[in-house]
Design a protein that fits this description.
mainly alpha, Arc Repressor Mutant, subunit A, 2 domains, 6 helices, disordered N terminus, WH-like_DNA-bd_sf, Helix-turn-helix protein, ArsR-like_HTH
Length: about 180
């Protein structure tokens, strides 16, 4: 089945989101990122698509930026029930979902970058093969994490963002070539 013809609930990320919301009663993009791995921006995108399909709905807010979502009536639970005794997906199950979501986001960027303001129409994609030991590979990953950690607070603390800041996806994949 092609992606364009796949039912909404068969998308692995959206299925995981429906299961999370069904299990917890409600979830935000931050909850999804914490439980499933990945970024809040990517989960926000898929939560909005599920809402557009009528499978979930936003819970009225009492303040703050959090946007909790719940199943819309019984339709989503009936159409996409969580497997009996299911729990949060393992890292091995969610990693391919996250990678696929990253790839999809990048393809969308490439298709739509001409719509971005001029100063945002470039990206910094690069790749390089280097020879490392397992310890060195772990060290490189630690450096990437340390650099990214300098900016993580901006996700949950909007006043700390510079006025012209926009969400930017950062993806690094370090793996041995077998």
């Amino acid at each position: 089945m092609t992606k364009a013809h796949r039912p909404m609930g068969e998308h692995p990320v959206r299925t995981a989101l429906l299961e999370l919301i069904g299990r917890e009663g409600a979830a935000t993009a931050t909850d999804a990122a914490r439980e499933l791995g990945g970024s809040t921006g990517l989960y926000s995108f898929h939560l909005r698509r599920l809402a557009e399909a009528g499978l979930i709905e936003e819970i009225p807010k009492s303040g703050g930026r959090a946007k909790p979502w719940r199943l819309a009536g019984d339709s989503a639970e009936t159409a996409f029930p969580a497997p009996a005794g299911s729990s949060a997906p393992s890292d091995n199950e969610i990693a391919p979902i996250t990678r696929g979501l990253e790839d999809e986001s990048y393809r969308q960027w490439l298709e739509r970058r001409d719509e971005a303001p001029e100063e945002w129409r470039h990206d910094e994609a690069f790749s390089q093969i280097v020879y490392l030991t397992p310890e060195e590979m772990e060290g490189v990953a630690d450096v990437f994490r340390a650099v990214i950690a300098q900016f993580r607070h901006r996700e949950t603390n909007p006043p700390s963002r510079p006025e012209d800041a926009e969400p930017v996806a950062i993806m690094a994949r370090l793996f041995p070539l077998l």
